[in-house]
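Our preliminary data section would be incomplete without showing what the modeling component actually yields. Below, a chain of 870 amino acids is followed by its predicted structure, encoded as tokens that our downstream tools consume directly.
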Amino acid sequence: MAKKAKKETPLMQQYNAIKAKYPDALLLFRVGDFYETFGSDAVKTAKILDIILTKRGAGSESETELAGFPHHSLNTYLPKLVKAGERVAICDQLEDPKLTKKIVKRGVTELVTPGVALNDEVLSSKTNNFLCSVYFDKQKIGVSFLDVSTGEFLTSQGNAEYVDKLLQNFNPSEVLVSKQKRQEFNEVFGNDFHTFYLEDWVFQTDYANETLIKHFDTKTLKGFGIEDLYEGIIASGAILHYLGETQHHKLQHITSISRIAEDEYVWMDKFTIRNLELYHSTNTNAVTLLDIIDKTISPMGGRTLKRWLALPLKHLDKINERHEVVDYLNTHETTLQKIRNHIKHIGDIERLISKVATAKVTPREVVQLKNSLEAIVPIKALASNCENESLKIIGTQIQSCDILREKIKQTLNEEAPVNILKGSTIAEGFSMELDELRGLSSSGKAYLDSMLERESERTGIPSLKIASNNVFGYYIEVRNTHKDKVPEEWIRKQTLVNAERYITEELKEYEAKILGAEERILAIEQQLFSELVMWMNSFIKSVQQNAHLIGQLDCLCGFAQLSKDNNYIKPMMNESFDLTIKDGRHPVIEKQLPLGESYIANDVHLDRDSQQIIMITGPNMSGKSAILRQAALIVLLAQIGCFVPAAEAQIGIVDKIFTRVGASDNISMGESTFMVEMNETASILNNISDRSLVLLDEIGRGTSTYDGISIAWAISEYLHEHPAKPKTLFATHYHELNEMTETFERIKNYNVAVKELKDNVLFLRKLVEGGSEHSFGIHVARMAGMPQQVIRRANKILEKLEKSHSSEELTDKVKSLKDDLQLSFFNLDDPLLEEIKDEILHTDINTLTPVEALMKLNEIKRMLLKKKQA
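Predicted structure:
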């Protein structure tokens, strides 16, 4: 027997028709004063919002789950749904229910997704909310980021590693991918992102080009400098397509698109970003670098700082420019404090102007925008009069927006409400008609008082009262003791226990006049406000430019304040390959120290000629990792334009920072600690350059001792012999690696000093020259509170092992390595290789044609084959 079809009410028929258009979204369906969800949407909504799940039409054929909340609570509940990764379609009533006898017309007015949100409750003020799109081509991957709430639009392309780094840095709230590439995306980038899958046809060259050109109203994309980013353009086109799909058509605030130029910024892979704990930490309640250095006051400054930290500069001029500004502000305390005090009064003008473009701005927000622009005027004056050239440029570029501010001032009441329906939005004196209607409305009280007095005298009823209610408007109330005096022309409307209520012809006429005036006031206010918002659209670019400049200025002032508060110094930047830090401190750890305890500062010097690799040995907990990390963080701070925690720093520009710190399991991805460690190390060895800074911490500890030492030795040797000679800090507890200095002239031994007392060990946390002999692991176990019998037993076993063979034997074996074949890019003991070397050296590459080059290569190949056959 066929299953009986579920009977649908007209309302549910309408719901199902709309839901069919948005199958991937939770549909908030407006019914009267409530937003309702039905069926599986209701089950999900009730769980996320922790609200009651009930049934509609319980027991009937049309029974379905139901969960809802009052419409005025939308701003409370919507953020929770979006933050849970849901896409939410808001379906509103498109006509007044009173004006129709049929079912009310409804339609989706907005689709809010994790990456497409304009509500303040969903957004975080100091963080961008990026929607991202990723396009896979054969060789390259295109990527694009857009923050709808600010209008920032960025694009780039590159290999999987580069795109992965950008995804880590920009941390998008939602990622768009082609349905056909679902598996590929998860394999390459993991499944930590909220992804949404689009049809494959969206990712087409012509369609993407056309979409972007149509949006920007240009002939080509050359003006944005992205015309050669073939894959990036496709990813960007998909983002704009998606905005159209989500009912976002007012996008005048997206005024340009810019490229993230790979060669402009320091390369940090995703492991480095994670290991250095720049913005996030795997440990709960851990303090990140951003927490320490963020002294910005405005939302624009907060977002700019994150961008700078994600993309450190590697061009000397640009870095020095920022340092000069910080230096100037540092020495001009009054200017610094004045600018910061004015910035305090600036709201999020970048997001406010975006709300103007999308017509989602409230009257109060327009007034906030005007007040923020007023606070910018004195900043413009201060910056323009500075002796520092960069500050002067910022000052001249800031727009004072006089016309915009004046117009808002004339149009809107300073105390304008959040909701235009509350009235009193438009300022007095702006519209004659509005002022007259308001006069009529407010003079009503006096009119009613005089009418009451007149009627009281005429009828002889002393205690008349005029009031109104929603049922029959204005009425006159007469107590029962006087009801015999009521005139015949009064019409009785309601009887109470001790009084009667009447209406009169005069009251009805007055009421029509008053209500008409109030309705007209509301209509005029709405019209004037919407005209103002439309007019403001022509100022989008000016306000966005101001937002951008204030963001930069706030960041630089923040850096100056940070260096004053924490005693940071200006680093000397140059084009050399050296790194010299005197008395360097870890910016985060020094702020976490107990009161009264001072940070033990350390020196680090690295170059490519005499001290390329520093091998740091020392016990666990002695501070090896802190020394490694602080070197990277000092370089990073210097290259974002900040001062650094040290007594002196001379830094040759670094173009890549690699770290491999600690062992972290990735069991969820089915990889062991050791596998993760090897993956990360392989990524370093395959990408090093002559300006790289490499930090390795405890490499090889995820496997057996002999294995670990072999791998650590081979990696160090590889870095030493590599033509790029990357600057390297290598912390290890394998003391056997100290022997490497005898064979490799650019490897130097250092250790973190400890002081041995009778039964104790004091960690001095000072880096000193020379290798260390012990690891003091048992001492650390004692500090951790390990039971005494375990400590005693460990000491006995250690004695036995030391007596028998382990340490000396192992060291001897390691020493013999230097007599072995050294890892080299040419093993010249072989006469054939000598011959090939001569062949290559005597070839003049500049005069070689491509065909001759291939023939030469073939000749060398034949020599090798002959040797193999022999």
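Residues 380 and 395 are 5 Å apart (CA to CA). Confidence is low (pLDDT under 50) at residues 664-670, 823-828. Preliminary results of this kind motivate Aim 1 of the renewal.
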